[in-house]
Design brief:
The complex is a heterodimer of chains A (573) and B (395). With 573 residues, chain A is α+β, with helices and mostly antiparallel strands. Chain A has 2 domains: 168 residues, Penicillin-binding protein 2a (Domain 2) (Alpha-Beta Complex); 311 residues, 3-Layer(aba) Sandwich (Beta-lactamase), CATH 3.40.710. Chain A is 38% helix and 22% strand. In chain A, the strands form 5 sheets. In chain A, strands 2, 3, 4, 5, 8, 15 and 16 form a 7-stranded mixed beta sheet that branches. Chain B is an all-alpha fold and 395 residues long. Chain B has one domain. The radius of gyration of chain B is 23 Å and the shape is globular. The chains are: A alpha+beta (573), B mainly alpha (395). The interface between A and B is large, with 41 and 43 residues.
Chain lengths: 573, 395
C-alpha cells in the first residue's frame, strides 16, 4: 500500500494526505460519539424510545363472613383526548360525537384542546359497554387508559366499616384505608419502545411486569345480620324520633363482630367525597365515639362485688332512696326508696344506691383495677384505626374525687365506646374471659392473625361469678313481667341503660341515651347485642322503653336467621 | 483469448469490489432504513428498496457503458456537456419545470422523465469540463492570470446557478473539487491558497446573507437549545450513531429509523448504518471509500494523457469529498450540508451519476493497461538481459 502511494505524484500525495487526515478526524469524532459516549446516547435513546404503560392491579374484594362481596372492583376505562393529534375538522367532529355519546358538555374540553393542554381527561371510570363503542371508532385523538371502579353489591351495608377510596383508588377510610396495602396489590407495567407518535416499534423490546392483584379480606360481619341491624336501627330512630344511634352484634364466644350499624350512614356509591357532614356520617361510632354507659355499668359493678366475695346475689342493703357523698347526694333514677333490697333486685330495678353501696364495699383500688381488666380506658385491639380509648379517671388520676367512684358504679362520669361496653359485657357471658373483639376473619385465604392473638384471653372474673351474672341478667329480663327485651320462645338476659346527658353540667332528661346490652339464648349464648339510641325526642326516653324492644325485634330475627332452636324450658312451659 | 479478454474487459478488481460492496451495503441499508417510512408514506415497505434496485441496475449499465466507451471523446464534447448542464440547472429555477421540495429548488420535472436533480449531473459535468480545459492548457502556463480568471469564471457561474437552489453543500463540493483539480493540474500554490481563502470568505458571506445556510450553522452550533426544532435532526443523528456503540444494535434493529431520524434513508443513511452496525460498520464503509480514492488516484497517476489523469482525479475526489461532507455533517463535525453519501443514500440521480463516473475511471484504466503490460515486459526483458550478462560474466 505504502509502495503504491509512493508512486503518486507529490500533488496527489498531498491531496491524499489531506483526505486521510480529514477522514482520521471524522473517525476520531465517530469513535468519540459511538464508543466513548455510547452510554450517554444509549440513555438518551432509551428515554426517548421507551414508553411505560401502567397496568393496574385488581384491588382485593372485601367479603362478609359468608363470602358475599361487600366491596369489589370492576375494570373501567378513563377516556382522554390527545390534543396534539387534533389536526383535522374530522377529529373535532369525533370529539363532539364522543361528548354527545357520554352525555357531557364538550365546550370546555374543546376549549382546552385548542388552548394548549395536551392530555385532557374527558371522563373517568366508564364501563366496558361504553368503552367498547368508543374503542371501535378508532379515533387518533381519543384514547383510553385502564382504571377501576369500586362497586358495592350491598350498597351502603356496613359503609363505615368498609370505608371508601379516593379518586386514585387509594383507601381513605375504614378497612379500605387500614388494609390498603393488602387490598391494593402492586401495579404492573408494560415497557415498550415507540416511535415519536407513540406507536410501538416493530421488533422493539417489550418488558411486561405483571401486576400483583390485591388480596381479599373476609370480615366477620354477616351481611344479613348487618342488614337487620341497620333496618331495626333505622326503625327505632324513626319510632322514637331520634337522629342517631348504633347497634353492635357480636358472637360472645369468640369476639367476632357480626354487625356494626351506625346511623347516619354513608352512601358509598354516591360521590361521598362531596357529601355534607362527611366526617359525621363516615365515623364508625361503635369504635370511635364514647358515651357514658349508664346502668349497663351496674352489671360490671355487681360482677366485681361478686368476684371479690364482697356481696352475693341475695346479699341485702338498706335503700334510703339516696346516698350522700360529702356534700353531694345521689338518688335513684325513679327517686323512690326501696328499703331492704337484695343485690339482684337492685339490678332488676336498676337502683343507683345499691350500685354505690357495692362500689364502696369494693373500694376504689380494686374497683379501678377491675375496670382496667375489663378493658375500660384501653383500646380493644380490634385492628381498626380511629378507635377511642374512652375516658376513665381512676383513684390514681389527679382530678379524681371519691364521688367519682360512686357515679362510676352506675355508669356516669366514665365514658367508653359501644365496642368496649359490649366486650366487657361479653366477659360476664363468656365464663369470665375477656375475648378481644375481631372484625377481620381472613386475609387472602389465611386466617387473620392480628395483635389480639398475642393477647391472652384474660380471665377477668371467676367462672362462678360469670354464672351468677348470667343468672342476674336473665332475672332482669325474665323476672320483669313486662320487660320489652323478651323474645317468644327464648330466654333473654340483659340490662338496660339510660344515660342522662350532661347539659351545662346539669343532667337533662331531654337528652338521654337509651341503651340495652344483652345476649340470647340464655342457655347457650349465640349473640350479644348492644343497642344505643341517642337523644330520643318522643315521649319515651328510657333504655327499657326504646332500646329493649329494638333488641327484642332484632334478636328474634337474627335467631331465626341463625336457625337457633327455641329454649327447651320455654317450650315446656 | 486472454489478450482479447484483457483488452475489452480490463478492470481494476479492487475498485470494482469496493464499488459493488458499497452498492450492496447501500441496498441493504436503504431497505432497513426505509421500510417503515415506505409503508407509512406509500403503503409499501419495499418502495425505496425497489427504486434503489432499479437505479442500481441503471447505474451499473451506465458504469459498463462508460467503461467500454473511450473516455477521450468526452474532451471535445465537454463544452456541450457543460452547456447542457447549465441549461438543466436553469430549469431548476424555471417555474414550469422546477420542482420544489422542502423549500429547496433542486429538482427538475420534465415530461416523460422521472424527476431528477441536475446538480448531481453538473457535479460530473464540471469535472469533465475542467479536466478538458486544464488539459488543453497543458504545456501553456497554467499559472497565468488569464488561466486563473477563466477558471474562476467557469466555476463561479456553475456555483452561482447551484447556489440559487439554494444548495450550499453542492456549491461547496463543486468549488472544492474544481480547486483540487486545479491544484493537481499544476497550479501555483500561491494561487490555490488565494482561491481557497477567497472561497472561504465568500462562503462565510453567503452564509450570513443566505438564511437557509445560516440556520444550519446555528443548529450545528446550538442544537441543544432547540432539541425539538432546529436542532432536532442534528441531535437525532448523534443519538442514532451513539446508541449503536462499537458493534451496533444489529442489522435491521435501528430504532431511530422509526420516524425519529429525518432523511434516515437518504442523507442520514450512515447514522442508521452506525446504529445498526456500530463503529465497526461505519469504519468499514469509510475504508471502502478510501479504497476508491486510492485506486482512482493511482489510475490518475498512471494515465497516459493529462485529460484522463485530471478526470480520474476529479472523479475520485468528488466521491471522497461528498463522503467527508456527509459524514462530517452527520457526526456534527461540520454543519449539515444536504450532501448525500454516494452509492449509499437513496436518490437515483446521484447513484446513476456516481456509477457512471466510476465507469469513466474503468475506461481510463483500460487505456493504460497495455502500457503497464509493456512496462512489465521491458522489466522482464531487463532482468533476462541482466541474467544473461551475469551468466556470461560468471563464465
Amino acid at each position: 500500500m505504502s509502495n503504491e502511494i509512493s508512486r503518486l505524484t507529490w500533488r496527489h500525495k498531498t491531496l491524499f494526505s489531506i483526505v486521510v487526515l480529514l477522514t482520521g478526524i471524522l473517525l476520531f469524532r465517530l469513535f468519540s460519539i459511538q464508543v466513548i459516549n455510547h452510554n450517554k446516547y444509549k440513555e438518551e435513546a432509551y428515554l426517548m424510545h421507551s414508553s411505560v404503560q401502567k397496568l393496574t392491579a385488581n384491588r382485593g374484594t372485601i367479603y362478609d363472613r359468608n363470602f358475599f362481596p361487600l366491596a369489589t372492583s370492576l375494570q373501567t376505562w378513563d377516556i382522554f383526548i390527545d390534543s396534539s393529534k387534533i389536526n383535522t375538522a374530522n377529529q373535532t367532529n369525533e370529539i363532539q360525537e364522543l361528548c354527545a355519546f357520554l352525555l357531557i358538555n364538550c365546550d370546555e374540553i374543546l376549549y382546552k384542546a385548542l388552548n394548549g393542554s395536551e392530555q385532557i381527561l374527558v371522563q373517568r371510570k366508564i364501563p366496558y359497554s361504553k368503552y367498547s363503542i368508543i374503542n371501535k371508532k378508532n379515533s387518533d385523538a381519543i384514547y383510553a387508559l385502564n382504571s377501576s371502579k369500586r362497586i358495592y353489591p350491598e350498597k351502603n351495608l356496613a359503609g363505615q366499616v368498609i370505608g371508601y377510596l379516593g379518586l386514585d383508588e387509594k383507601g381513605l377510610w375504614g378497612i379500605e384505608r387500614d388494609f390498603n396495602d393488602i387490598l391494593s396489590g402492586t401495579a404492573g407495567s408494560i415497557y415498550f419502545e415507540t416511535d415519536p407518535f407513540g406507536r410501538p416499534i416493530t421488533f422493539g423490546n417489550q418488558v411486561i411486569t405483571e401486576p400483583q392483584a390485591g388480596k381479599d379480606i373476609v370480615l366477620t360481619i354477616d351481611k344479613y345480620i348487618q342488614n337487620y341491624s341497620q333496618k331495626y336501627l333505622l326503625e327505632a330512630l324513626k319510632d322514637f324520633k331520634a337522629e342517631s344511634g348504633s347497634i353492635l352484634v357480636m358472637d360472645p364466644n369468640n369476639g367476632e363482630v357480626l354487625a356494626m350499624a351506625n346511623y347516619p350512614e354513608i352512601e358509598l356509591e354516591n360521590n361521598i367525597l362531596l357529601s355534607e357532614n362527611l366526617s359525621d356520617n363516615v365515623r364508625n361510632k361503635i369504635i370511635s365515639d364514647i358515651y357514658e354507659p349508664g346502668s349497663v355499668m351496674k352489671l360490671i359493678n355487681t360482677a366485681i362485688g361478686f368476684d371479690l366475695g364482697v356481696v352475693a346475689p341475695e346479699t341485702t342493703y338498706i335503700d334510703k332512696g339516696f346516698v350522700d357523698i360529702g356534700p353531694q347526694r345521689i338518688q335513684n333514677w325513679d327517686l323512690n326508696t326501696y328499703g331492704e333490697t337484695s343485690i339482684k333486685n337492685h339490678l332488676i330495678h336498676s337502683l343507683n344506691t345499691g350500685a354505690v353501696w357495692i362500689a364502696q364495699k369494693v373500694g376504689p383500688e380494686r374497683f379501678y383495677k377491675y375496670l382496667d381488666n375489663f378493658g375500660f380506658g384501653d383500646l380493644t385491639s380490634i385492628g381498626l384505626s380511629g378507635e377511642a380509648e374512652g375516658l376513665l379517671r381512676t383513684n390514681k388520676s389527679k382530678d379524681w374525687y371519691p364521688i367519682d367512684l360512686a357515679t362510676n358504679s352506675y355508669g356516669q362520669g366514665i365514658a367508653a365506646t359501644p365496642l368496649q361496653v359490649l366486650t366487657a359485657v361479653n366477659v360476664l357471658i363468656n365464663d369470665g374471659k375477656l375475648i378481644r373483639p375481631k372484625i377481620i376473619k381472613e386475609i387472602a385465604n389465611e386466617t387473620h392473625v392480628n395483635n389480639s392473638i398475642f393477647m391472652n384471653d384474660d380471665q377477668v372474673i371467676k367462672q362462678k361469678t360469670s354464672q351468677n351474672m348470667k343468672e342476674m341478667m336473665l332475672a332482669i329480663v325474665e323476672e320483669s313481667i313486662y320487660h320489652q327485651a323478651k323474645i317468644d320462645g327464648f330466654l333473654v338476659a340483659g340490662k338496660t341503660g339510660t344515660t342522662i346527658n350532661t347539659i351545662n353540667a346539669v343532667y337533662d332528661w331531654d337528652y338521654t341515651i337509651a341503651t340495652f346490652a344483652g345476649f340470647v339464648p340464655y342457655e347457650n349464648p349465640k349473640i350479644s347485642i348492644l343497642i344505643k339510641i341517642d337523644y330520643p325526642r318522643g315521649n319515651k326516653n328510657l333504655g327499657g322503653e326504646i332500646a329493649a324492644p329494638t333488641f327484642s325485634k332484632l334478636a328474634s330475627e337474627i335467631l331465626e336467621y341463625l336457625q337457633i332452636a327455641p329454649s327447651k324450658e320455654m317450650v315446656k312451659n | 483469448m486472454n489478450k482479447i479478454a484483457n483488452h475489452h474487459f480490463a478492470y481494476d478488481q479492487i475498485l470494482l469490489s469496493a464499488v459493488l460492496l458499497l452498492v450492496i451495503i447501500g441496498i441493504v441499508s436503504i431497505y432497513s432504513a426505509s421500510y417503515a417510512i415506505g409503508y407509512l408514506d406509500y403503503q409499501d415497505s419495499y418502495y425505496f428498496l425497489k427504486r434503489q434496485v432499479i437505479y442500481t441496475f441503471i447505474g451499473l449499465i451506465g458504469m459498463g457503458f462508460f467503461a467500454v466507451m473511450d473516455y477521450r471523446i468526452l474532451a471535445p464534447l465537454s463544452p456541450f456537456i457543460m452547456i447542457f448542464s447549465v441549461i438543466l440547472l436553469i430549469l431548476t429555477i424555471e417555474p414550469h419545470t422546477a420542482m420544489e421540495i422542502n423549500g429547496a429548488k433542486r429538482w427538475v420535472d420534465l415530461p416523460l422523465l422521472p424527476p431528477f436533480q441536475p446538480s448531481e449531473f453538473s457535479k460530473l459535468a464540471i469535472i469533465i469540463y475542467i479536466a478538458a480545459w486544464l488539459s488543453s492548457r497543458s504545456g501553456k502556463d497554467i499559472g497565468s492570470f488569464a488561466s486563473v480568471t477563466t477558471f474562476v469564471i467557469t466555476v463561479g457561474t456553475v456555483s452561482f446557478l447551484i447556489m440559487l437552489g439554494p444548495d450550499l453543500g453542492t456549491t461547496l463540493l463543486i468549488t472544492a473539487v474544481a480547486g483540487a483539480m486545479f491544484f493537481v493540474a499544476g497550479a501555483r500554490l500561491l494561487h490555490v491558497i488565494a482561491l481557497a481563502t477567497s472561497s472561504i470568505i465568500s462562503l462565510g458571506l453567503l452564509i450570513i446573507v443566505n438564511g437557509y445556510g445560516f440556520s444550519r450553522v446555528v443548529s450545528y452550533l446550538s442544537a441543544e437549545s432547540d432539541p425539538g426544532g432546529a436542532g432536532y435532526q442534528t441531535l437525532q443523528l448523534l443519538i442514532a450513531l451513539g446508541s449503536g456503540g462499537l458493534t451496533g444494535l444489529g442489522l435491521g434493529s435501528s430504532r431511530q429509523k422509526f420516524f425519529y431520524l429525518p432523511a434516515s434513508h437518504s442523507d442520514g443513511i450512515l447514522a442508521v448504518i452506525g446504529e445498526e452496525l456500530g463503529f465497526i460498520g461505519v469504519t468499514l464503509v469509510i475504508i471502502l471509500f478510501l479504497t476508491i480514492l486510492l485506486q482512482g488516484l493511482k489510475i490518475a497517476n498512471k494515465s497516459s494523457d493529462q485529460f484522463g489523469s485530471l478526470l480520474a482525479s476529479g472523479i475520485s475526489l468528488m466521491i471522497i469529498f461528498q463522503v467527508l461532507l456527509n459524514i462530517g455533517g452527520i457526526s456534527r463535525t461540520i454543519p449539515l450540508t444536504g450532501i448525500p453519501l454516494p452509492m449509499l443514500s437513496t436518490g437515483g440521480t446521484s447513484l446513476i451519476v456516481t456509477l457512471s463516473a466510476i465507469g469513466i475511471l474503468f475506461s481510463i484504466n483500460k487505456q493504460i493497461m497495455p502500457k503497464e503490460k509493456e512496462r512489465k515486459k521491458i522489466n522482464i526483458t531487463r532482468i533476462e538481459l541482466n541474467n544473461t550478462i551475469l551468466a556470461r560474466k560468471s563464465k
